[in-house]
Amino acid sequence: MRINSRMADDIESPVLSKATFYSDLNGTSKGEISLILSINPASVFLRASIQLLLCSFGFTEGLILQVFLDFAVLTLPLCLSVTLLSDGALHILLTEVALSFSLLFLAIQIKSTKHKYIPLKQLGQTPMEGRLPFITNFRVLNNIGVAVGILAVDFVVFPRRFAKTETFGTGIMDGGVGAYVLMNAIVSPEARGQYQRSGLKPIMKSLTSSLPLLVIGLGRLVSVKGIDYHEHVSEYGLHWNFFFTLAATKILCTLILLFTPVSWSAVISLSLAVGYQVLLTQHGLEDLVLHGTDLNDSREGFFNANREGLVSCLGYVAIYFAGVRLGQYLLQPRKIVSEWLKVLAYLLLADVILWITLKHVEARKGLTSRRLANLPYVIWNVAYCLHVLCGFLLIDIIMTIIRHHYLAKDKSRQLSLLVSAIGRNQLLYFLLANVLTGLVNLSIDTIHQPDVTAFGIVALYLFVLNFVLVFFHQKNISTKFW
């Protein structure tokens, strides 16, 4: 569904117009979403290839060049794929991959000191240890994708099939929340082996780390209600929002770990997801979430007012524990390429199994629903995150081999300036994106903007976000104090 200006003009109230713009959407195919998200690792691949080529010429990237290259290569391709070039995602992906290999070939021809054939066994013994970029790239590029979506969705240039679905189905924005939960779980203290069960200490630490999210959530609630900002009530409810979900998920996970060891994360995730689905389909919880305690869409009382946000936390907790288990596996020390190739193979196998499982679960238990965060939604989030994570890991392996064997053990920077900057202050980036999105919506009538104008506004907003985060990074400022 794609609303046009005439349709918007037919709706008298601006608030009602916004509500109609976001309502009754059914999403797109999971394949199209995976295709678009594959652009993120391809963009990182292209950025690394450009950097190596410039290094092969002996050229050092200055700060200004880094800022503009990062913006053009890491931000714009995904932005274009969900706006002006929404039907050309495959062409964008293939173009980036082709350019990347072409630039790498050219860099090797210019700088390489070895042109002989290297046996596969020797390639497998290539050193690949220490802190690897692929997890950071995965987390940061997902953040950039969320930032693109939360503003672009307010414009007609953003196809309605990509927006959040009403109840069932998958839009590209439906995966943002789940991916955000999973990507934080991968590097959580639980995943890094730093979680300690000792009395009330874990609870206090969890509450302390969740406090900024609760404060931001309250701030968003007050501001939205105070300025009569458009709301999609069926997303989380009347008062609940994404920040409350993040805080509640963290606190619930801490409470669960008071009674179970972290090593059981996979079992906890599976048990929660399946048990929650049983409650939804066999014990009436789905009808309660969708239609209220009176089954007549009541919003009376705190629970009915926020039933989607409250109940769906169970699904996000399942995703969090899946992320913890994934992080435990990925963060194990490995020294050579062949060990990481085994990781890649296992992740791909797990991904295939998850996609097959998802197909069978949807056939028996119902379609994916972000609103419910049901079992299909949990499986889908883990599956597509694995898909994207595999792309980033493959790039790390390729770049490690090329740097070591063909570019005289090139020691050039592996993380781009923008990725380093956002990685340092990820919550600030997300918060600033929300603030700027609100300011843009209050300043202009977004749904009546021509496509090119809309794209220009979104691109400028992304550039401002990048600039602020790079500024903080250059000044060595970290906003995380808890």
From TrEMBL:
Keywords: Acyltransferase, Endoplasmic reticulum, GPI-anchor biosynthesis, Membrane, Transferase, Transmembrane, Transmembrane helix. One of its GO terms (biological process) is GPI anchor biosynthetic process. One of its GO terms (cellular component) is endoplasmic reticulum membrane. The keyword Membrane applies. InterPro entries: PIGW/GWT1 (IPR009447). It is a multi-pass membrane protein. Its EC number is 2.3.-.-. The chain crosses the membrane at residues 44-69, 89-108, 140-162, 168-187, 207-227, 239-259, 266-285, 309-328, 340-358, 378-402, 414-432, 452-472. Signal peptide: none annotated. It is an enzyme of class 2 (transferase). Belongs to the PIGW family. This is Phosphatidylinositol-glycan biosynthesis class W protein.
